[in-house]
């Protein structure tokens, strides 16, 4: 894949690591970054040797938001006709599990990008917020919806209306992030979690992700029915036979990822 100018893509075992790389702009997410992240993750998503994708930024900034300088001159017709930011939605369609490893600023589009990932790990230095209102705009990559689902109306409304940011501890208490890690250990921890996920059965991990995500889209009864269908379906996999045989034989499973 590539060549890419604004991101770095590395492979470590069954994990792919994607690093946002516009350090001078604190990884501001311009359209080139969007197109490269989406293209790269879609290539990785189709690769059977990739079982998990980690997205990260720099120590100072995961991403300080959408690129304000790029947006500044745009008018309504520019935004509408180019369907500005809609490509980001494709990250939510990836089947491979994704992990956001967030250190430093995750503001505006940066917070939204982190929320597009399946697991959100935060360094103790992480700062989250939707400060768009201070620029005279509102979130545009799903922040008003995903933040509200993650932390509830009370905090989401306050953050979106005042532009106030949350530190890592508040974000964890509010349920936005799964865990906080010391900044110096963030990447190693994210890669370790990724390798754990990537070591599971790939189709079963995809189904687990699908099932959890369905909770945000449907009623409880429909969601449970959906889960039950997938639960029955995993018994068609070789990995179910291997996983349960390994338990009975008191040995680690060796999944074939099918
Ligand atoms: N867009 C474009 N450039 C940005 C940027 C952004 N979102 N955030 C930072 N930069 C640039 C700065 O302009 C600066 O560039 P120059 O050296 O050329 O001036 C460089 O990155 C370093 O930034 P600062 O000097 O501001 O660094 P700091 O440490 O003093 O402050 C910060 C850090 C508090 C994060 C500050 O940069 C900031 O407030 N950034 C903007 C945050 C923001 O409003 N994000 C929301 C954007 S709108 C959005 O995301 C819409 C949406 O929902 C999709």
From TrEMBL:
GO terms for biological process: fatty acid beta-oxidation. It catalyses: a (3S)-3-hydroxyacyl-CoA = a (2E)-enoyl-CoA + H2O; a 4-saturated-(3S)-3-hydroxyacyl-CoA = a (3E)-enoyl-CoA + H2O. Keywords: Fatty acid metabolism, Lipid metabolism, Lyase. The keyword Repressor does not apply. GO terms for molecular function: 3-hydroxyacyl-CoA dehydratase activity. It comes from the Bacteria. Its EC number is 4.2.1.17. It holds the Pfam family ECH_1. It is an enzyme of class 4 (lyase). InterPro entries: ClpP/crotonase-like_dom_sf, Enoyl-CoA_hyd/isom_CS, Enoyl-CoA_hydra/iso, Enoyl-CoA_hydra_C. The keyword Lipid metabolism applies. Belongs to the enoyl-CoA hydratase/isomerase family. Could possibly oxidize fatty acids using specific components. This is Probable enoyl-CoA hydratase echA8. It comes from Streptomyces klenkii. The lineage of its organism: Bacteria, Bacillati, Actinomycetota, Actinomycetes, Kitasatosporales.
């Amino acid at each position: 894949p590539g060549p890419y100018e604004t991101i770095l893509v590395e492979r470590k075992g069954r994990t792919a690591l994607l690093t946002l790389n516009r350090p001078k702009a604190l990884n501001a997410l311009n359209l080139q970054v969007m197109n490269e992240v989406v293209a790269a993750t879609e290539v990785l998503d189709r690769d059977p040797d990739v079982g998990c994708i980690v997205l990260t930024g720099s120590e100072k900034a995961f991403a300080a938001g959408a690129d304000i300088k790029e947006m500044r001159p745009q008018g309504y017709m520019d935004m509408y006709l180019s369907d500005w930011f809609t490509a980001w939605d494709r990250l939510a369609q990836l089947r491979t599990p994704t992990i956001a490893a967030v250190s430093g600023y995750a503001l505006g589009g940066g917070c939204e990008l982190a929320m597009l990932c399946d697991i959100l790990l935060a360094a103790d230095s992480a700062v989250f917020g939707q400060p768009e209102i201070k620029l005279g705009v509102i979130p545009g990559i799903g922040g008003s919806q995903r933040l509200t689902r993650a932390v509830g109306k009370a905090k989401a409304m306050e953050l979106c209306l005042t532009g106030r940011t949350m530190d890592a501890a508040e974000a964890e208490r509010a349920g936005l992030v799964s865990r906080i890690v010391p900044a110096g250990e963030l990447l190693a921890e994210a890669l370790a979690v990724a390798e754990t996920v990537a070591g599971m059965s790939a189709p079963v991990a995809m189904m687990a992700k699908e099932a959890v995500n369905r909770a945000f889209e449907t009623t409880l009864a429909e969601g449970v029915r959906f889960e039950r269908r997938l639960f029955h379906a995993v018994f068609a996999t070789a990995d179910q036979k291997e996983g349960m045989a390994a338990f009975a034989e008191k040995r680690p499973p060796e999944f074939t990822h099918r």
